[in-house]
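Subject: complex prediction, re-run

Hi both,

The earlier run crashed halfway through, so I resubmitted it with identical inputs.
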Amino acid sequence: MIELLNVTKKFGSFTAVDNISLTVPKGEFFGFLGPNGAGKTTTIKMMAGLFTPTAGTIKLCGFDTATHPNEAKMRTSYVPDQPFLYDKLTGREFMYFMGGLYKMEKKVIRERVEMMIEHFEIGEWVDKRTEDYSQGMRQRTTIAAALIHEPDVIIIDEPMVGLDPRSAKIVRETLKQKSEEGVVVFMSTHSLPVAEELCDRIGIINKGRLVFVGTQSDLAMYKTRYDGKFESVFLELTK
Amino acid sequence: MSLLLHILRYKFLSFFKTTFDLRAVSLVRGIGSLIVFGGFGLVAYSASYELTLFVMEKTRIGLFLYHRFISMVLFVFFMAVNMGNIIVSYATLYRSAEVNFLFTKPVSFTQIFLLKFLDNFLYSSTTLFLVAFMVLFGYGTYFGYPWYSFLGILIFVLVPFMFLSASVAVLVLMSVMKVASRWGFRKVLVLIGSVYASLVFLFFRFTNPIRLVNQVSQYYPEVDQYFSQFDPGFLSYLPNNWVADFLFFFAKGQWEMALPFAGTLLAVTIGMFGLVLFVAHRFYYKSWLVTFEVQASSNSVEAGRKMKLFDFRKRSLLPPQVEAVLKKDYFQFFREPSQWIHLLLMLVLVIIFVLSIRNLNLGLRVTDVQVLTYLVLYAFGVFLSCSLALRFVFPSISLEGKSFWSQLSAPFDVRKLFLLKFAVSLLLVLTLAILVAVASNLPFVRLTERRPLLMYFGLYSAFWVSLTLVALNLGLGGYFSNFQEKNPIRLASSQGATLTFLVSLIYLVTLVVVVSAPLLKYFESLFFFLPFDFRMIVVPGTIFGMISSAIVGFSVMIGLRSLQRDF
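This time it finished cleanly. Structure:
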């Protein structure tokens, strides 16, 4: 479960995230949308422990990220918007590295790595150093590495960028399956059709504030006020 | 030409905007840097002046010998600039995103090369310029040079000297790229490294300073003569000798003898740069394409599948997080040629130094001379640790790069990461420091009829110096971290790194000052059969430990805090 309570992030005099409160229950697929610079990545980075909130509380699986960061992170997985990997490691080595950081036993890591290689269809190049990977290869490796420790919460920033149609399908299906298994998926995306297709609930952030949070049926109601398109709702809310 | 100026204009604009940023934090940093740089310049100036004064008036070795030593220092300086440029220019000329961008634009390959060459030269040589100029200023002040001559020497001697070194470096690099496509990059780099190490070794073998001193001493008191007959023939072809000879005749006031050396240097530099541009015009683009071939051939799936030493798949006795981070650092280091080759080169130089000094025959029982010799060797040892720490410890946090998210978002305490990096770095720096300390103290143990006091001091010092320099470089490396920069050498020559290096040098000078008084007393007691009060070492030893502890504490605090910043 994810809980954000009055979370604010300021960079000097600029408020990137302004007093956001939100709860995402177990098994929910939450889509986080907003225009460029709205505060999506900042919010996600605070949840992942890369930014410290200026004010407010973030709890992941009941653990406050400020007071119990390691307990919270142990149950969480983060996939950044840019899939940066250690370029001298192979994809396989990167997955072992991530498994080690999550204190997994070698035998378990080995089984999970093989499973991920097969699932994400990366066996052909997983033993090459990542410095030669394309954007899509990096993205698939990052997502595979993020799922190694079987997290309860997945925080994923723009997962579909750079993926070919087949890879995008694999990622979509994987995330949906995880959500059905009871994992919380918090996904930021610019793709409105992806959000509509996958998410149980959608939140829209604009200028650091949450301007809409609702389920697919809430969204459907909103859509009727406009021309029936999600795009029109989004553009109106983020004016 | 106008296109080149257009690009340069925007590069300068970008440089000025980032350098002369008017935000409070940047201003404070800037003023801090200015104070440290200024202070360091002053230290370099007065050290050079005092050393010249001491050598010319106290030891009275004469102008010729002094300038032969200057020639040797200039040789080391030339090689340092040269090797630095080879390694940095590989990243600048072949692995830079800017080059990739410019190749897609209507800019000629030669213009791109010229831009990156100048970029590389200015970036990696600014600090060395400052040091070299202040040393020259101190030296020239002693000989009463008029003020305008410094400017002339700077423009017509010092800059061409460094430019020549950089040009040779780039020429060597392009040749490496040509051969690497056939032989493989790793083999060629090892070969080049071995050739360079051999060159340094042979230079000092043929210009043996002790033999030179003995030869010149035979003509005592005519030590101011120009004993060119003692120079091995090949010396007259080396640029360091041209500079040293220019300074020698200039110091004697013989302009007409000095100018041909500056003229030769200038002509050779211009010729070499012309040759570099010609080769670049013909070959830069082709050699740039070679990098892709080399990289593709060195990164195969088959090689990746093979079980390696410290393979991630192997079992380990270490806790999983420690194992993961150590193995990651190991592969990141040993799969990056600019890292392991530089380390190998430094190790070779240390070994040459250790082998050269362990059998040094000190002979003379003259207090001043032995104290000076000891302090020079001691300072060199600390300087070596400073360089090693700057080159390998300072960049280590920044080198986590943008991939650092993986550790920061994992249940991994960053203090553990700091501690691990600290332990590994300390192991490297301390091992070499002990090696140098033992080798440089052995001749003194023999001189003092096997009294072990100096050896104990050397080991005590090696421990504290290593601890302090590792903490300082890791702490400030974290504070000045730049996760955008992938090139370790550029990181080690950044503004933050220069500042750290200057702080390290101030620490070095402080240590030399702290130990000089008891050292003088110790040698006096030995040579004049006076009693030595061992309390003389307790106070400086305590001051030494306290200064070091303070730096360690401060640096660790800064380093740990920096890791908790927003990423």
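The radius of gyration of chain A is 18 Å.

- K.
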